[in-house]
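dumping this here so i dont lose it
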């Protein structure tokens, strides 16, 4: 009985080393780029049309979401977004593995989400091998501007990632994390809610 040949796409989705120059993967990236090109070049008033393009592109969407152009991704079908999702200008998602984003997630400008990685040793890297690990972002997350989220990261629920952070390790629920590398600096508590409500009532 002959053993089944594993395709480069199957290797990619399984987190194994694969060659991105594979014909099937190249074709799928081109398809995604055509949709992204159309999305990015529609006039600002065509909000509904842009939304329909992302529904075609992404693996999963909910009713309420908005992505400011320009936007970039590799495949699109590995991206899943929850309800009430908002992304500001210049979001880049290299979705060679699944990127799962929860409900009520807000992303500031110039954020990069990278599931892809490359060998450190040049011998394999020069043969165009790479690998990918999934990224998970929980519910009620705010990601500041110019943040980089690296492969294999899990960001919990109710998290704030400060601007300019480079996330190299998992971030637990209910925390504020900042820096390069990104580190938890404190928990988010009810006092944070009271602080902003107080300022709103005072008109600050």
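and the seq i came up w/
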């Amino acid at each position: 009985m002959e053993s089944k040949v594993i395709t480069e796409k199957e290797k990619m989705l399984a987190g194994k080393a694969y060659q991105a120059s594979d014909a099937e993967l190249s074709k799928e990236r081109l398809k995604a780029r055509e949709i992204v090109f159309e999305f990015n070049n529609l006039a600002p008033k065509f909000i509904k049309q842009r939304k329909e393009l992302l529904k075609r592109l992404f693996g999963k969407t909910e009713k309420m979401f908005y992505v400011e152009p320009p936007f970039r991704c590799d495949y699109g079908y590995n991206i899943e977004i929850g309800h009430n999702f908002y992304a500001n200008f210049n979001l880049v998602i290299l979705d060679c593995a699944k990127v799962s984003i929860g409900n009520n997630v807000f992303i500031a400008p110039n954020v990069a989400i990278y599931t892809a990685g490359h060998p450190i040793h040049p011998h394999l890297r020069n043969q165009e091998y790479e690998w990918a690990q999934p990224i998970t972002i929980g519910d009620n997350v705010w990601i500041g501007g110019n943040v980089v989220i690296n492969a294999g990261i899990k960001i919990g629920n109710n998290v704030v990632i400060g601007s300019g952070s480079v996330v190299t390790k998992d971030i637990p629920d209910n925390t504020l994390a900042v820096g390069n590398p990104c580190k938890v600096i404190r928990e988010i508590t009810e006092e944070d809610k009271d602080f902003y409500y107080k300022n709103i009532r005072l008109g600050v």
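Residues 8-202 form a domain with the UDP N-Acetylglucosamine Acyltransferase; domain 1 fold (CATH 2.160.10.10).
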